[in-house]
Design brief:
five-stranded mixed sheet; about 500 residues; binds adenosine-5'-diphosphate; rod-shaped; two-stranded antiparallel ribbon; 12 helices; disordered C terminus
């Protein structure tokens, strides 16, 4: 079984290990330093006492010398004083031996002193007590042997004390370096531990961020590899569940959308024939005015007009449903702009005259041809001009202009009517959207005209936009690529409209 501790457990373990390491290193370091200090103090005391005993040995020897050879001539050498001095020497030597136990060098020096002292006593002091004067050479040699051994012990002791101090210093320094290295090592271990912890989270978190970005970008098939500490693994699982449910919802939405499109397509299609029949009969009736009384004629006219509106709405719905299904077809061919603009201008002029609006059509000289389905682009222009006519008041000015902009031809329909504010402009190409202004509400409409215009322009590889300042009128522009040698220089249309164009 793979152990995967949680983030909190990992942090706890990390801190515990770090704490234990620091504690062990600190305790060992402090213990060692304490031990060095105690040892040093013991050594210093011992050497101090040894120096004391050396002094006692030296004074013992001086007393022995004084006993064997008194300072004044009327004093006699005393066996008793010599014994007392010798006893004091031996006692001091015994004390000193205890102190040099662990130091062979000092023990040897002490032994040498004791031996030379014993030799001196035997060969110099004892003969003098018995009033026999030893040979001067022997006395001088043995006396300086004792003195030299005494000095060697004293200097050896002070050297040992200095060495003990130096040792203590060196050991303290080494221990301090070791403790510092230990603490540094513990901190390094902690650093490695924590960076390992961070690394264990970084990769799965990175995957989650990347996944969230792709999901937000619309790729609903995005799933992340679950991993890392328990919390992040749960986050990964939750992310995948969310992506599953989003994908399920999207699939369901697409299905419903498809059903709706199919429904609209079928119903519009089925309605078209009866409505055409009704319109046809109504128009036939209005054409036979003589056979009808005025009420019958009026009724026939209303039926024909309503059937006409219904027919337009059904056609618009059919166009949109086909566009959604990728079945809206256009038949582009090389088209001259001027005749197209003039034809639509001619068709629309009566409407403008009916509202006493000033309508102008201006087409730039030598405008290149476009590759377009003239019927469909005519439909777009008629939609835009109908809107300008409908929503602008009597006496307004409406202009249709065609100019070359770069390697495209731009069509612009502008009016000086009520215009649209910024928020309305955002929705103007939405389906079924109509401004809730009095101008819009007072005239009929379905809110489909501009949505269809957008679909058709995009299907041609062009783009449409609207500009307006409220109260100062509106301008709707769309651009289409210029046809070159019978072949258009086309932009890439969006995938859906492209599919429609191809089928
Ligand atoms: P319809 O005209 O059938 O309502 P459209 O899609 O053609 O549908 O237009 C959508 C809405 O945009 C209109 O209802 C109107 O509120 C607004 N609109 C369109 N053209 C103009 C214009 N030239 N001036 C002011 N408002 C306009």
């Amino acid at each position: 079984m793979r152990v995967n501790p949680s983030l909190t457990a990992r942090l706890r373990i990390g801190f515990l290990v770090l704490f234990a390491l620091l504690l062990i290193v600190s305790l060992l370091g402090v213990g060692r330093l304490f031990q060095i200090r105690v040892n040093y103090e013991d050594d210093i005391t011992r050497y101090f006492q040894l120096e004391l005993q050396s002094e006692r040995l030296r004074s013992g020897f001086i007393l022995e010398q004084a006993a064997a050879r008194p300072a004044t001539a009327h004093q006699k050498p005393s066996q008793g004083e010599l014994d007392a001095a010798a006893a004091s020497f031996t006692n001091a030597a015994g004390e000193a031996r205890k102190l040099t136990e662990n130091d062979t060098e000092l023990t040897q020096k002490l032994n040498r002193l004791v031996i030379s002292q014993t030799a001196w006593r035997k060969a110099v002091a004892q003969p003098l007590i018995h009033e026999e004067v030893p040979p001067a050479r022997v006395e001088s040699k043995l006396t300086s042997a004792v003195t030299n051994s005494g000095e060697a012990l004293a200097s050896g002791t002070s050297a040992a004390r200095a060495a003990a101090r130096e040792d203590a210093r060196t050991e303290t320094r080494n221990t301090t370096i070791l403790v510092a290295a230990g603490l540094g090592g513990a901190l390094l271990a902690a650093l490695i531990l924590f960076s390992g912890l961070i690394n264990s989270m970084r990769a799965p978190l990175g995957r989650l961020v990347e996944g969230a970005r792709r999901l937000a970008g619309g790729d609903l098939r995005t799933r992340v590899e679950v991993g890392g500490p328990v919390e992040i693994a749960s986050l990964g699982r939750a992310f995948n569940e969310m992506a599953n449910s989003l994908e399920r919802d999207a699939r369901e939405r697409d299905r419903v959308e498809q059903m709706k499109d199919d429904f609209v397509l079928t119903v519009s299609h089925e309605l078209r024939t009866p409505v055409t029949v009704v319109k046809g009969f109504a128009e036939m009736l209005t054409a036979q005015r003589k056979g009808l009384n005025s009420r019958q004629y009026e009724a026939a006219e209303v039926i024909a007009e309503s059937a006409g509106q219904l027919q337009k709405m059904i056609n618009d719905l059919l166009d949109l449903a086909r566009s959604d299904a990728g079945k809206l077809r256009i038949e582009p061919e090389i088209t001259a702009v001027r005749p197209l603009a003039q034809r639509i201008g001619r068709q629309m002029r009566p409407h403008f005259e009916g509202k006493e609006q000033q309508f102008t059509v201006s087409v730039e000289k030598d405008l290149p041809d476009i590759e377009a389905d003239a019927g469909r682009i005519g439909q777009v222009l008629a939609n835009l001009l109908t809107n300008a006519n409908k929503y602008s008041p009597e006496g307004s000015q409406v202009r249709l202009a065609a100019t070359q902009v770069g390697d495209e031809v731009e069509f612009a329909v502008s009016d000086n009517g009520p215009g649209l504010d910024e928020e309305q402009l955002e929705h103007v190409f939405d389906r079924f959207w109509r401004a809730d202004s009095s101008e819009s509400q007072s005239v009929g409409g379905t809110g489909l005209g501009l949505a269809i215009a957008k679909s058709l322009v995009e299907l041609h590889g062009g783009a449409i936009s609207a500009n307006s300042s409220p109260g100062e009128g509106a301008t709707f522009r769309f651009v289409l690529p210029i046809a070159k040698d019978g072949r258009p220089k086309r932009k890439e249309p969006s995938s859906r409209t492209k599919a429609g164009a191809a089928s």
